[in-house]
Write a structure and sequence with these properties.
The complex is a heterodimer of chains A (476) and B (1074).
Chain A lengths: L1 H10 L17 H13 L4 H28 L14 H25 L5 H26 L25 H34 L3 H11 L6 H34 L11 H27 L8 H32 L2 H12 L4 H13 L7 H5 L1 H27 L15 H24 L5 H6 L21
Helix pairs in contact in A: 3-15, 4-5, 4-8, 4-9, 4-14, 5-6, 5-15, 6-7, 6-8, 8-9, 9-10, 9-14, 10-11, 11-12, 12-14
Chain B lengths: L20 H6 L1 H8 L15 H17 L29 E8 L4 E9 L2 E7 L12 H10 L8 E3 L2 E3 L1 H18 L4 E5 L5 H13 L4 E4 L7 H10 L3 E5 L6 E5 L10 H10 L9 E6 L4 H5 L2 E4 L5 H16 L12 H15 L4 E5 L5 H13 L7 E5 L8 H6 L4 E5 L3 H4 L10 E6 L4 H4 L3 E4 L8 E4 L5 E4 L12 H8 L7 H9 L3 H10 L8 E2 L8 H11 L9 E6 L13 H5 L7 E2 L4 E3 L1 H7 L5 E7 L2 E9 L7 E5 L27 E13 L3 E2 L14 E3 H5 L4 H5 L14 H8 L4 E6 L8 H9 L7 H5 L8 E7 L27 E7 L8 H5 L5 E3 L5 E3 L9 H5 L6 E2 L24 E2 L2 E2 H7 L8 H10 L12 E2 L5 H15 L18 H5 L5 E5 L6 H7 L3 E2 L11 E4 L1 E3 L13 H10 L12
Parallel strand pairs in B: 6-7, 6-14, 9-10, 9-12, 10-11, 14-15, 15-16, 20-25, 22-24, 28-41, 29-40
Antiparallel strand pairs in B: 1-2, 2-3, 4-5, 4-16, 8-13, 13-19, 17-18, 20-26, 21-27, 22-25, 23-24, 23-26, 29-38, 30-31, 32-33, 34-37, 35-36, 39-40
Helix pairs in contact in B: 4-25, 6-16, 7-12, 10-11, 10-12, 10-19, 12-19
Classes of the chains: A mainly alpha (476), B alpha/beta (1074).
Chain lengths: 476, 1074
């Protein structure tokens, strides 16, 4: 046995070419199951409460207060005004849609491209997607003047023969965001079914058993079930991948179908997709880095995974930088006085130039740090960069939305926009709701796809010396 | 049922009015009537009303509850209708009726036609039948309707602060009359504002006859009587001047803001626009002024000097003209200094246009300047052509100065607000102060007896217009709060037996029955006033020169500033302080709302170290007042502009505490020197509707000089970017097909050459379309609701602009040098009714769509308020109702926290419960609510919050006209409205515009005025490069500068700015002239 192992080792690729193992420590599958289930089963740690309580306060007090005050009083409680009819409401909408995107991308696109490392972080990213799409979907619904008439936007058959206006990108938005919410929730839930079964089987109390039995939907792990499951999973992955591109493209179309200088550009669909992905990777970094430590998952979510996320963030960041360059170049090259004005004022107009430079500073300059391996290996740095990317992308949306509206065609209309406490309160409320939901997910649901991780363990390979073919059960 | 009382009590006009719906609805009779199934005959109604009248009132008041309820456009209205048991004859419910009346002003009157629905006036228009008029009005007339329904107007008779019955108050007047009849008026003084009412003059005479010892004082806080006094003094006869701007080729304004701040505005603007048409007879306007006014904005040459220097300039010009006539030809004279050259060239121009010149001095200027103006006019044979002198009785009575010295026993104050605007604090307080006033204001507080005055729409009266025509003031509604007219009050005070104001007027006018009816029908009495044909100047030139030297003040300095007090364009002298429409109307030049400010020039601000919003303390003659600084482009250096009419302590819920009170340092002279200014350290935020001053070289307003225009230069091509090639769209516009079958295609042109930017259209639109006011805080946030706004841009020599200026914030433009000498342009901006409207394609719910006649229409019920349409509108003419502005209580106009139905209580009940019981109930108290319901135009939906709204081309008027035409056409197919037949309606803004700048009509009719104008050389679309194909187009503005002037430019500043911005040159343009 050992002889053949030595032989195999001699055949292996040199260390520097070898792929990092998905799970470090050369552990067995049993250990893995324990490791990945124990957090959802164990006691609630202190750090969880420390994070959860403020998040829950924001979600249950600040959020409804700001929401009801706005709906009962009018959009006027926000800072939106005459030239700048859209403010933080739409900025946050795009930002949340953006955050949603990395989750699906990691989960679905990397699945299709057979990137094994995705299995360890996919679930956490998917949860991020589902919760942030919820937050995103909320904004268009409540930002309108008469939220109780939102149903006008749905094609509800009615005796008046009135239909939504299908030419309007806002109409497309309704479909896009709702489809995205439905599909990503399904994807999220379906992926968890085998893991629900694991938790069901490990349950020690009747209550847990009952809940997870219900959620597992009768999963037994039979070959037939796995067969159907994996087919369905591939289909959903395909759908989700498509949605990553379409949803953000449509959000981009909200702007580029308008004729406002600064919005009216064909690059917008791509711009918004990449922006969303970039922002999402930032958020993945922000969430993963602390959680892997606090949940003791360093060997599952390895430095190599983080490194890959950081590389993807760099790639998407570089595309963003290219788009910035193109935007400014086209504004100059078009010779259009309005375009030139808007882009000139993004960087030099005294009203919002600070934001313009924050944007450049983070999305262009800070991103370049990710070229360095030392930075990519430094978790503290990566966490800070993740936070900065989110700030930078929020700023970018602000600059696009407000920066294009505040000074457009006729100078007589020019104005300024400054959010009020209610704008900011609602944003804090959605952040709170997001993190509250996320912490509940982390604590009570399988945050790492147990079955998927097992599926990419060396032991799962039938041809692996320790694999299922050679050693029954694959257990040590 | 038989009509038991067939003789109505008030048969005077054939129409009857009621006082107040509340009064009727609260009577026990009515309540009883409500509870019975059938009223028991009309015998219960013994108040002189006929049964038919009663029914009419009932149905009307219930209709109001149903039709005009707030927010009813967005929710199903609760309808309570009592149908007629018997249809009244000659009356169609829901059809507006029109009555001629007039709005009296200080020195004239605005002849009006008031539109009335079910007995409530909701809109006034100018009287188009009036021989000297075009149906235009001024902003005060348009806004006056709101005053009628003002919640805060005086609604009760009080004695020593307590409410008394009307009868008791009238009895008190009778006792006064008896007392003074016995002692010949000993100790009686009356203080009144000036009036042109012959009836009042007659009553004044009666009082003078009955009470010879009584004193009568006349005062106006803003005195426009100076024109008459000056003419009388200049020509030695009691005459007043009528300025015929339409006859003038050269107009010189000596600090006269005849297009913005003077009395009789609508006539001045109309006449000025008449001679301003581009062509060989276009007039030329020279303005000498310290403040930047609308007249300065309309001027071809504007001389920026301190107000105290105007006399010197007038005398300089006169001197040149005298030398010319004495033999020294002007053409032989040379001048080197810029000012001398200005005067010499101006004098040359005047001399060259003998008989067609008009020099007019401003109300602010001392009498001597007016004398100089008359002298120049006389010297150039223009009296009789450009200035008509009509004989006018000298106002009897003493002035405000003698009032200060008077010590009456009983003081009767008729209107006016001396405690506020005369700084009158009764030192030796008269035993009794009796006041007839429209508000319970500052003076009412100090009065012992207060009588509520009537609005002119509730009054019988008469007035004389500025050209001497007698006009009637007839009521459209019975006084809502039992008020008294001035005439009735005076008649009672005089102890007359005839106290009915209608009878008083009839007695004054003295017409037979038929003539009287015709007088009321027409709204004027055609008569030729006596004009003075061959006037002789009383003063000699040398005397005038001395007088001028006496009033010419040394140039102000930073340590000794000049203060110019001016009549505010909105609050007037403070009388309209509680009118929310006027408070929210952007001041035509500064675009400021809800405030006044200390206007200074950039240099003054720099030297004194102050910036916009800094609160400063001004000391003048030992008195001080504090107010915020506002840097005004084009202001004279070291001159401070202070608008009167603000800082009211007790104006009402709208006007109290708005701005600062410049009267505190005002003592009757409008230009004062020697003021000092000190920074207090505080700052104040001003609510301005337009922050950016420069057009940034964008071709929003297109201008040319007459000389260029006359060369038949292809204006459009030369000025704008090359016209975009006609692109055949892949997708044909479905509306183009509709064009072939639709009966009309509506369009509009706005003549920027005629528009002076006075703001009357904005007020007319607000009145017609039920546009709410939003309050200062909301204006500050850019949420004012005006569907029609007037964009005002300042342009300057682009050489003075630094590249960095473009990147500065709007707050920093006050420090830029280019604002020192500016030209200004005004552009009314309303929905452009684009044929390919960007707003329509982005609305997700089809709330804004196009109709076959080319209107971009809004379905308010369908709108959910995504606001994308506004974002995509390049003209930004859509307004969003952010906070339910129609239902917000008036007390919240100034707040920044908004109460919600969750927290707010109205009349002691939670709003949420009120809303639950009746979704149409608002957050306003019942008294506000009732008056608001009365004031709304029932033809126009009152929009709720969360809904986008915008100009509709007054679609209600179009529909009315179409329905009327269809009714008339009967079986024939003659349903098309045509201008030739006079059936095309006018939009509210068009009808109100005194300059006739706005023309609306059917563009598919090639003979219509609007089609003809659109064919003209000056026609252009704003932002046409966006291919929105607007139906509203503009006619370019033409300036007519004098090529010999030192500040002459080949092209206007805006053109040069455009060239600099776009890098295109049209023609080498020599700058200036040496």
């Amino acid at each position: 046995m050992s002889e053949s192992l030595e032989h195999l080792k001699s055949l292996a690729a040199p260390a520097e070419l070898r792929r990092a193992p998905v799970v470090e420590g050369n552990r067995g599958l049993g250990w893995l199951t324990d490791k990945l289930s124990v957090f959802a089963e164990g006691k609630i740690p202190r750090w969880w409460w420390i994070l959860f309580l403020p998040a829950a306060f924001a979600a249950t007090v600040i959020f409804p207060t700001c929401l009801f005050y706005q709906v009962f009083t009018g959009v006027g409680v926000w800072g939106n005004n005459h030239p700048v009819m859209w403010g933080l409401d739409i900025v946050n909408f795009i930002w949340w849609v953006g955050v949603a995107h990395a989750g699906t991308l990691i989960s679905a696109l990397l699945f299709l491209t057979k990137q094994h490392w995705r299995t360890t972080i996919g679930r956490m990213a998917e949860a991020m997607t589902v919760f942030s799409v919820m937050m995103a979907g909320l904004y268009p619904a409540i930002h309108v003047g008469r939220a109780w008439f939102d149903w006008f936007m749905f094609p509800v058959p009615n005796s008046n023969g009135l239909w939504p206006q299908f030419r309007s990108p806002l109409m497309w938005d309704v479909f896009a965001v709702n489809t995205y919410l439905v599909v990503s929730s399904l994807f999220f839930f379906m992926g968890m079914i085998p893991d629900f079964a694991v938790l069901r089987d490990r349950a020690t109390t009747r209550l847990r058993k009952g809940i997870f039995s219900f959620l597992a939907m009768g999963w037994t792990g039979s070959a037939r079930q796995w067969h159907h499951y994996e087919k369905a999973y591939v289909v959903l992955c395909g759908l989700c991948t498509l949605l990553v591109f379409t949803v953000s493209s449509i959000v981009g179309l909200d702007f580029c179908t308008a004729q406002i200088a600064g919005w009216h550009a064909t690059i917008f669909p791509l711009y918004f997709v990449i922006g969303a992905v970039f922002c999402g990777f930032g958020m993945v970094l922000v969430i993963l880095i602390p959680l892997r430590k606090w949940c003791g998952l360093e060997q599952v979510i390895t430095l190599s995974h983080i490194d890959k996320v950081a590389k993807l963030a760099l790639v998407s960041g570089l595309i963003i930088d290219y788009i910035y360059l193109m935007e400014f170049f086209i504004a100059w090259y078009s010779g259009d006085q309005y375009e030139r004005w808007v882009f000139g004022h993004r960087l030099f107009g005294h009203t919002y130039m600070v934001l313009g430079w924050i944007l450049i500073g983070i999305n262009v300059c800070v991103t370049q740090l990710l070229w360095f391996k030392k930075v990519r290996a430094n978790l503290a740095w990566l966490f800070i960069i993740g936070v900065l990317i989110n700030i930078g992308m929020w700023t970018e949306r602000f600059v696009i939305v407000v920066g294009s509206l505040y000074q457009e065609f006729l100078p007589a209309n020019w104005g300024k926009y400054m959010p009020t406490m209610w704008d900011i309160g609602l944003y804090i409320g959605t952040l709170g709701a997001f993190f509250m939901l996320y912490l509940l997910f982390v604590k009570f649901l399988p945050m790492i796809a147990i079955s998927e991780v097992k599926g990419v363990m060396p032991e799962a390979d039938p041809h692996h010396p320790l694999g299922g073919a050679n050693k029954e059960g694959g257990h040590e | 049922m038989k009509n038991l009382n067939s003789q109505p009590a008030l048969p005077v006009t054939g129409r009857r009015y009621w006082r107040s719906l509340d009064e009727l609805a609260d009577t026990p009779e009515f309540k009883e009537w409500l509870h019975r199934e059938f009223p028991q005959g009309a015998s219960e109604l013994e108040d002189g009303s006929s049964r038919r009248h009663f029914l009419k009132i009932m149905s009307a008041s219930f209709a109001l509850a149903g039709v005009a309820v707030m927010g009813s456009g967005c929710r199903r209205p609760e309808e309570k209708l009592v149908p007629y048991g018997q249809q009244p004859e000659n009356y169609t419910f829901g059809t507006a009726e029109y009555f001629a009346t007039a709005m009296p002003t200080r020195t004239g009157a605005v002849p009006l036609v008031a539109k009335s629905y079910e007995g409530r006036p909701i809109k006034v228009e100018g009287n188009a039948l009036f021989p000297n008029g075009n149906g235009g009005t001024d902003r005060f007339a348009q806004a006056s309707v709101l005053d009628l329904y003002d919640v805060d107007r005086a609604r009760r008779f009080t004695s020593a602060g307590n409410k008394v019955a009307r009868a008791d108050a009238l009895a008190f007047l009778d006792t006064l009359a008896q007392k003074f009849a016995a002692n010949q008026g000993e100790g009686l003084a009356l203080l009144a504002e000036s009036s042109t009412s012959p009836s009042r003059a007659r009553l004044q005479k009666i009082i003078a006859g009955k009470y010879p010892k009584a004193q009568w004082f006349t005062y106006d806080a803003v005195d426009s009587g100076i024109h008459q006094r000056a003419a009388t003094q200049a020509f030695g006869q009691p005459v007043k001047p009528v300025f015929n701007f339409d006859q003038a080729a050269i107009i010189v304004s000596l600090d006269a803001d005849f297009l913005g701040g003077e009395d009789d505005l609508h006539n001045h603007i109309r006449k000025f626009a008449a001679s301003r048409k581009p062509g060989p007879n276009m007039n030329r306007l020279y303005a000498v002024e310290s403040l930047f006014t609308l007249t300065g904005a309309g001027a071809d040459h504007r001389l920026r000097v301190a107000a105290g220097a105007v006399a010197g300039i007038a005398s300089g010009i006169l001197n040149l003209l005298v030398q010319d006539s004495a033999g020294t030809s002007l053409s032989s004279m040379k001048a080197t200094a810029e000012l001398d050259r200005w005067m010499l060239t101006c004098a040359k121009d005047l001399a060259a246009n003998r008989g067609k010149v008009l020099v007019v001095a401003g109300q602010r200027q001392p009498l001597e300047v007016h004398l100089l103006a008359h002298a120049i006019n006389t010297a150039l044979d223009s009296i009789g052509t450009t200035v008509t002198l009509i004989s006018a009785p000298e106002s009897a009575g003493l002035d405000a100065k003698s009032f200060a010295a008077a010590t009456p026993d009983t003081l009767v104050i008729l209107g006016g607000n001396p405690v506020y605007n005369l700084n009158w604090s009764p030192k030796q307080k008269p035993a009794t102060v009796v006041r007839l006033g429209y508000y319970e204001d500052e003076t009412a507080e100090k009065s012992d007896w207060n009588f509520p005055a009537t609005h002119f729409l509730e009054s019988w009266g008469d007035a004389t217009t500025s050209d001497g025509t007698l006009v009637p003031v007839q009521p459209l509604i019975q006084p809502l709060f039992d008020g008294l007219t001035e005439l009735e009050f005076l008649a009672r005070l005089a102890g007359e037996t005839q106290t009915n104001p209608c009878d008083i007027v009839r007695a004054t006018v003295g017409l037979g029955e038929e003539a009287w009816k015709k007088f009321l029908f027409n709204g004027f009495l055609a008569a030729t006033p006596v004009t003075l044909s061959s006037p002789k100047l009383v003063q000699t030139f040398s005397q005038l020169k001395q007088l001028a030297a006496g009033v010419t003040k040394p140039a102000p300095t930073a340590g000794s500033l000049e203060v110019v007090f001016y009549r505010d364009a909105k609050a007037d002298d403070g009388r309209y302080a509680n009118n929310g429409w006027l408070q929210e109307l952007p001041e035509p030049v500064t675009k400021m709302t809800w405030d006044n400010a200390v206007l200074v020039s950039r240099k003054t601000a720099q030297d004194l170290g102050v910036a916009n919003g800094d609160i400063v303390e001004i000391t003048l003659n030992g008195r001080t007042v504090s107010g915020p600084i506002w840097t005004q482009p084009g202001m004279a250096d070291y001159s401070l502009g202070l608008a009167l009419g603000y800082g009211r302590d007790k104006a009402g819920r709208v006007g109290t505490g708005v701005g600062f009170n410049a009267y505190k340092i005002f003592n009757g002279s409008y230009v004062e020197a020697g003021a000092t200014l000190k920074k207090t350290g505080g700052t104040y935020v001003l609510a301005c509707t337009q922050h950016h001053w420069s057009m940034e070289g964008r071709p929003a307003v297109r201008e040319s000089n007459l000389e260029q225009f006359a060369k038949d230069f292809d204006y459009d091509k030369g000025y704008s970017e090359p016209p975009p090639p006609v692109v055949q769209s892949l997708y044909p516009n479905p509306l183009d097909a509709a064009k072939k079958t639709a009966l009309h295609q509506w369009g509009m042109t706005i003549d920027l050459n005629a528009c002076v930017g006075c703001g009357t259209c904005v007020m007319a639109c607000q009145s017609e379309n039920n546009i709410p006011i939003v309050g200062k805080d909301q204006v500050k946030r850019g949420r004012e609701m005006h569907w029609l706004r007037i964009d005002r841009y300042f342009t300057a020599d682009p050489v003075k602009r630094k590249p960095a200026d473009a990147y500065q914030t709007d707050e920093n433009q006050q420090f830029a040098e280019w604002i020192d000498d500016v030209q200004a342009v005004n552009q009314p901006m309303l929905c452009q009714m684009c044929e390919t409207a960007p707003c329509e394609s982005v609305c997700p719910v089809n709330a804004t769509v196009h109709d076959q006649e080319g209107l971009n229409v809004m379905a308010y019920n369908r709108c959910i308020g995504t606001r994308y349409c506004s974002n995509n509108c390049p003209y930004k003419v859509r307004r969003f109702n952010y906070l339910d502005f129609n239902k917000r209580p008036l007390t919240e106009l100034k707040g920044t926290m908004y109460s919600t139905t969750l927290t707010h209580k109205t009349d002691g009940q939670w709003d949420l419960i009120r809303w639950w019981n009746d979704p149409n109930s608002g957050m306003r108290t019942e008294d506000e609510w009732d008056l608001i319901k009365l004031s709304k135009n029932p033809d126009v939906t009152v929009r709720m919050r969360g809904v986008m709204e915008k100009c509709t081309y007054c679609t209600q008027r179009i529909e009315h006209a179409k329905i009327a035409q269809k009714a008339k056409a009967g079986a024939s197919d003659n349903v098309r409205l045509s201008e030739a037949a006079g059936t095309v309606p006018k939009t509210a803004c068009q009808q109100a515009c005194p300059a006739g700048a706005i023309v609306f009509g059917d563009v598919s009719d090639p003979t219509s005025q609007v089609s003809v104008l659109k064919q003209g050389l000056r026609n252009y679309s704003v932002l046409e490069e966006l291919l929105t194909k607007p139906r509203t187009t503009y006619l370019a503005r033409i300036r007519n500068p004098n090529p010999d002037m030192p500040d002459y430019r080949n092209w206007p500043y805006s053109h040069d700015e455009y060239e600099k911005f776009s890098g295109e040159t049209t023609e080498p343009a020599p700058k200036g002239n040496s």
